[in-house]
Write a structure and sequence with these properties.
globular; binds adenosine-5'-diphosphate; 458 residues; alpha/beta; six-stranded parallel beta sheet; binds uridine-5'-diphosphate-xylopyranose; Rossmann fold
Amino acid sequence: MRFKKNILCIGAGYVGGPTMAMIAFKCPEYKITVVDINPKRIAEWNSDNLPIYEPGLFEIVSSIRGKNLFFSTDIEKGIKESEIIFVSVNTPVKEFGLGAGMAADLQYWEKTARQILKFSQSHKIIIEKSTLPVKTAQAMERILHSNKKGVDFDILSNPEFLAEGSAMDDLINPDRVLIGSRETESGIKARDELVEIYANWVSGERIITSNIWSSELSKLVANAFLAQRISSINSISALCEKTDANIKEVANAVGMDKRIGNKFLQASVGFGGSCFKKDILNLVYICRHYGLSEVADYWEQVIRINQYQKERFILKMMETMFNTMAGKKICLLGFAFKAETSDTRESPAIFIAQKLLEEKAELRISDPRALGNAKADLAGSKGVIEYISDPVEAAKGCHAICLMTEWELYKELDFKKIYKIMEKPAFIFDGRNILNHSELFDIGFNVFSIGMPLFTHL
Ligand code: UDX
Ligand code: ADP
């Protein structure tokens, strides 16, 4: 079968994989190839054991793989054959040199740009999918237009707003699709080609266009606003603990104001994920670069509160468990940064686990999806760590349970049974406020949560 268009995506990660699966699923007339430098990842995308867990993803991938969706390591062929190239390589925070710990590390991005330039033989539309610092498209344009081959490129920004765990729903039914372009004739033509792809399943009023810098910046700002809400509610959870106010009641009352809204007001041990911290650091770095130090300080505080929340959690545990953890067995229920994903990037559980190990606690870690990543995250850490899939088995003989991820299954556990097989006094630290605290107290547990009343027999 001849396809209407060949589309390539460079980078087969959490963004590239699900997004391209959805485009291929909704647009059978386009051929979509996803390439990656990591052959293991590509082999997994071609197997029954996909490299990432996302509800509904496997069903979609397996229904179209080999028809109009292909996974490959042949980047050169992919570039040569395609008219449209999405770039969704990783852009982690830079760990070295200028801007270390703040700026985005653009080495993977730039390498990709150079590869595109090297192998391109005809005009291409290049689409930024990864989250990038504002003005990255300009760098991309400069690299691509430095060629003497006479090949032309149009660069678009099309940030991905999907959240992990609900990626397929977010892709099918997005709040908006944002496309930023140059306002030149060819920029607008390229933009319209991308609009045409999304129009296969997204209604016209949800596809919005803007200039390229607004598009890049909007992605950073959307993530910064979401993270800011969590840090705002988490900061108030600390005050609730001092004043006997209850954070759930406060969040409910505040969120009922339509102007504020009730989403993203769930107090927790802290936000994680690959985007929030990185994007805010990026925003802060850019503001400082332009001399906007007050603006930079304002946004930096969102990250500081997130760090404070994790530290407060450990301090609370220490204080409650008689100021020593040495030799105590602690069960971490959940390691993923949120439910319904295997992803552990920036998960608060990493920090909590490392601090507990420093205090010489022995860890039993359980998670229905993320144990593989948990092992990799803690590979270099010293101390006793066991990884146990069954949560009840993991809690056996432990002095305390720390609930780190809001998996539904943890609400349904038989806590009477768990209480019996734990050391006494038995503690539960609910880092997500999802358990029934008074019921747990009645069973015999001492229960500590985030910004809610204490339930303690001590
Ligand atoms: C986020 C954005 O939501 C998404 O639009 C963007 O494309 C990528 O970054 P993601 O990181 O996948 O998505 O998950 P999200 O649902 O935003 O949660 C981020 C973190 O905040 C998680 O650790 C989550 O547990 C935490 N969170 C979320 C809270 O602690 N409280 C809340 O009320 C909401
Ligand atoms: P994200 O969450 O942004 O999707 P991931 O780390 O999950 O980030 O995925 C990014 C992918 O990009 C990885 O699989 C990585 O191997 C791939 N990658 C990085 N650099 C290149 C490159 N130059 N060419 C092809 N793939 C790349």
